[in-house]
Every structure is written in structure tokens, then in C-alpha cells.
Specification:
With 475 residues, the chain is an all-alpha fold. Helix content is 80%, strand content 0%. Helix 6 runs antiparallel to helix 9. The chain has 22 helices and no strands.
Length: 475
């Protein structure tokens, strides 16, 4: 389950790891370079929502995961072919196809996690998933430039062919994730048979109009997600050249510090996930993460302090927010709508990322890195405002988002006890009704048998006569 997103996350940041090479070999400016991230996000403005809907109601979680993994593999191949053929629009198309599968695959992964682990260390599972995915991102940041140099040594020159072969080699990780999807589908089906557990199906019909019924708390979670990640992913996409130009780092040093966010999140995500599981108070953790992220961006924008400090803080905050924010969706929507809710969350997030990616490229081309960092800080401030609003909305409405782990466990036990009592009463009522029903006598059974054979019964006969006679005797 955790390795489902490994290949997708590895290849997602291929452009960031090869920013200098992509812009040089493809003769692209910063805005064109950032369009590679925008084209990844555009299809998911719609498809993430429908991806969750398809997982819930059409494909099922197993087949849906496999289909989305195939899209990831095909998209990466097209992306690499675009570089090989020196055709930038084909690279954009490859990122478009890659994006169709990438975010929907994340929705499937989240739905798998909730299906198996809701109420049982769910935050830890989300942390482990993020950890494995970020290992993929970390390896990409530190190895793709090395692979490019080895391919360059093999071919003897730089250019689109060298870039294309490098990207094709990186695509092997997508095949690994596809293999994980196939294995997980087999294990999930086997568990369903052994445990007699039908996963991802509740028998309730999901309507697309359910979106209008989402609570205010859920919409605030969406806003936090969009504004926060808009200040993280586009920054990392442009971070390598930023550290080279402002802090005079070498290319290798810039790649290392740009990947520190992912390096920290890999081991810290499961630790923070376990911590949130044991303590609870999800909103407080999210608030701490957002404030820390704002501090790191301000340091990078207005100081020349060693950037390792700010990037380490950003890595810790990023890990903490992911472990505390994403599981909150499961507390504010019914279980049968989880796929749709997570899909819609990914959809809005990708709308924000697509717009911010284009805006960031334009700001950098025209205004420089200082204005870009101020822009990212403003995005984090919006996220901070949304967190504060969520705290008060949750408090006023008596929500469980900021409950302690002990209180949440206690309330879950109470709810389970009430459900068992209701089920016992329902069965008792059914038994009482069954005792009051009269048993069919010989006369009634004989006439029912004759009517089925087509025999003509007397006009004065009524199927209720024997029952009425039986009730008269009871009186």
C-alpha cells in the first residue's frame, strides 16, 4: 500500500531535479518550465473528483488503482518521448496523461488506508504512506542529475536525446508501482474472502450533488490544503536554481538542500503520525505546522542565514501537516463518501497548484526571487487564517477534529455500544412480530396449491378467511 505512490512521486519531480538541463536542452524559459507542473495539475481539477467517484461506485478500489497506475506509466513514457523528439508540446501532453493517473492514484491509496485502518492508527498509516512516497521524491532529487551525467558520458553529448533517455530510465519506478498495485489488489481480494468483508461498498448511492452538502469544516480543510501546498510544491520545483543564485551553492549542494524537505518527511512522517494518533488535537498540530512554514519562508525571503535551517523547519512542518490534516476528512464526512471527499480535496488542490505554478513562473521571469517568496508567504498566511477559522467553527459546532485521542476513543466505544443496542432491539422486534404471525393451516395450504395448478376456486373464497378464523379463535 505504501509503495503505490513511490513511482508517481519519483517522476512528479523529475523536472525539478533536472531544471537546468530541461531549460537548456529544450530552450525553455521559467514559465514554460513551470507549465510542466501546471499540465500535471490541470486534468485533476476535474478527474480527481471523478476518480474518487469511480473508485466508490464504478471500478471499485482494486481495479481503479490498477487503471490509474497504468496511466502513470504511459504518461511518463510520453513525457520522455517528447524530450527524445525535441518536442516540448509532447512533453506537456505526457505530463497531462501522467497527471490523470497520479492524483487519482493518491485518492485510491487514501481510500485503501481508510478502508483498512480507520480507527486503528490511521494517522500512522497516512504518515507511512507519505514517508514511502517522499523517499521516492528524495531519491529523484539526488539521483536524476547523476543519471543524466552518466547518459551524457555514454552518448558523448548533451541535448534532448540525453534528457529523454534519462527520463525513460526514471520511468522504471512507475512500473514498480504498477506491480505493487497488482499485488495489493490480490491481497485485498483474498482478505475480502477470508474476512467476509466487502470493502468500499456500503449500499448507499452517491450523488455528485452531495458536494453542496459538505460541511463548513470540510471546506476550510480544503482551503488549508490548497494554500499550504501552493507554497511548498512550486517552491521546491524552482528551489534548485534559487539556492544556486541567492546562496551561491553548487548544483550538487542545491539539489541536496532542495531535497531536505523530502528527506526529513520520510522518517518523520510515521513518527508524527503515531504522535497525532496518541495525542489527538489535530487542529493544534496543523496550526503549529502552518506557523512554522510561514517562519521558514520569511527566513528564506528576507535573510541570508544558512538556508539549511529554514529548509529543515519546512521539512518538519510539511511532515506534521500531512499527518494531521488529511485524516481529518474521515472525521467530517460519512464513510461511503470518503472517496468522493478525498477526490474533491485533490481536485481543488490541483486547481490551486496549476494556477500557482504558472503565476510563480511569471513572477520569477519578471520580478525575481524576492517577490516570489513574498507571494509564497502570502499563500501560507491565507492557510493560517483558515486554520484559525476551523478551530472556532469546530469548537462552536461541537466537532471532534480537536478531541484528544482518549476522548475520541471513549466516544467511539459509546457509539459502538449504542449501535449494538439498536441492533439487539431490532432483532427482538422482528422475533416478536414473527411470534404474532399466524401459521398457515391445512385449508389455506390446499387452496394455495390448487391456485398454483390453475384450479378454479369458489368466488366466495378469500385467502384471508383462514387467517380471520384463526384470529377469531384467539379472541
Amino acid at each position: 500500500m505504501c509503495f503505490l505512490g513511490f513511482g508517481s512521486y519519483f517522476c512528479y519531480d523529475n523536472p525539478a531535479a533536472l531544471q537546468t538541463q530541461v531549460q537548456r536542452d529544450m530552450k525553455a524559459n521559467t514559465a514554460q518550465f513551470m507549465s510542466l507542473y501546471a499540465w500535471y495539475s490541470w486534468p485533476n481539477v476535474v478527474l480527481c473528483f471523478f476518480g474518487g467517484f469511480l473508485i466508490d461506485r464504478v471500478f471499485g478500489i482494486r481495479l481503479g488503482t490498477i487503471i490509474f497506475s497504468i496511466f502513470v506509466c504511459v504518461g511518463q513514457v510520453i513525457f520522455a518521448l517528447g524530450a527524445l523528439l525535441n518536442t516540448f508540446w509532447l512533453m506537456d501532453m505526457g505530463r497531462f496523461v501522467f497527471g490523470i493517473g497520479g492524483e487519482s492514484l493518491a485518492v485510491a491509496q487514501n481510500t485503501y488506508a481508510v478502508s483498512w485502518f480507520k480507527g486503528k492508527e490511521l494517522n500512522l498509516v497516512f504518515g507511512l504512506q507519505l514517508s514511502m512516497a517522499r523517499i521516492g521524491s528524495t531519491v529523484n532529487m539526488n539521483i536524476m542529475a547523476w543519471i543524466y551525467s552518466r547518459v551524457q558520458d555514454l552518448l558523448g553529448y548533451t541535448g534532448p536525446s540525453t534528457l529523454g533517455l534519462t527520463l525513460m530510465i526514471g520511468g522504471v519506478t512507475c512500473l514498480f508501482s504498477l506491480a505493487c498495485a497488482l499485488i495489493l489488489a490480490y491481497l485485498d481480494r483474498r482478505a475480502e474472502k477470508l474476512l467476509c468483508k466487502e470493502q468500499g461498498k456500503t449500499g448507499e448511492v452517491i450523488k455528485l450533488t452531495d458536494v453542496k452538502d459538505f460541511s463548513l469544516s470540510l471546506w476550510l480543510i480544503f482551503i488549508i490544503c490548497v494554500c499550504y501546498y501552493a507554497a511548498v510544491f512550486p517552491f521546491i520545483g524552482l528551489g534548485k536554481v534559487f539556492f544556486i543564485e541567492k546562496f551561491r551553492f553548487s548544483s550538487q549542494e542545491a539539489s541536496a538542500i532542495n531535497s531536505i524537505v523530502y528527506i526529513i518527511s520520510a522518517p518523520m512522517s510515521p513518527v508524527f503520525g503515531l504522535l497525532v494518533d496518541k495525542v489527538g488535537k489535530n487542529i493544534i498540530w496543523v496550526l503549529c505546522a502552518v506557523i512554522t512554514t510561514l517562519a521558514s519562508h520569511i527566513m528564506l525571503a528576507f535573510t541570508f542565514w544558512n538556508p539549511w535551517i529554514a529548509m529543515c523547519l519546512l521539512g518538519v512542518a510539511y511532515s506534521l501537516l500531512a499527518c494531521a490534516l488529511w485524516p481529518m476528512v474521515a472525521f467530517v464526512v460519512p464513510e461511503h463518501q470518503l472517496g468522493t471527499a478525498y477526490g474533491f480535496m485533490q481536485s481543488i488542490q490541483n486547481l490551486g497548484l496549476a494556477i500557482i505554478a504558472i503565476a510563480a513562473g511569471m513572477i520569477l521571469d519578471t520580478r525575481g526571487y524576492l517577490f516570489l517568496e513574498v507571494f509564497f508567504s502570502a499563500c501560507v498566511c491565507l492557510s493560517l487564517i483558515a486554520v484559525v477559522m476551523l478551530y472556532f467553527v469546530n469548537h462552536l459546532m461541537g466537532g471532534e477534529l480537536n478531541w484528544s485521542a482518549r476522548k475520541r476513543e471513549k466516544m467511539q466505544k459509546v457509539a459502538a455500544t449504542e449501535a449494538e443496542e439498536q441492533e439487539r432491539l431490532r432483532r427482538q422486534n422482528e422475533d416478536d412480530l414473527a411470534k404474532l404471525r399466524p401459521k398457515a393451516d391445512d385449508f389455506s395450504l390446499r387452496n394455495k396449491y390448487l391456485s398454483r395448478l390453475g384450479a378454479q376456486l369458489p368466488d366466495t373464497y378469500s385467502s384471508y378467511l383462514s387467517t380471520m378464523a384463526h384470529r377469531s379463535v384467539l379472541k
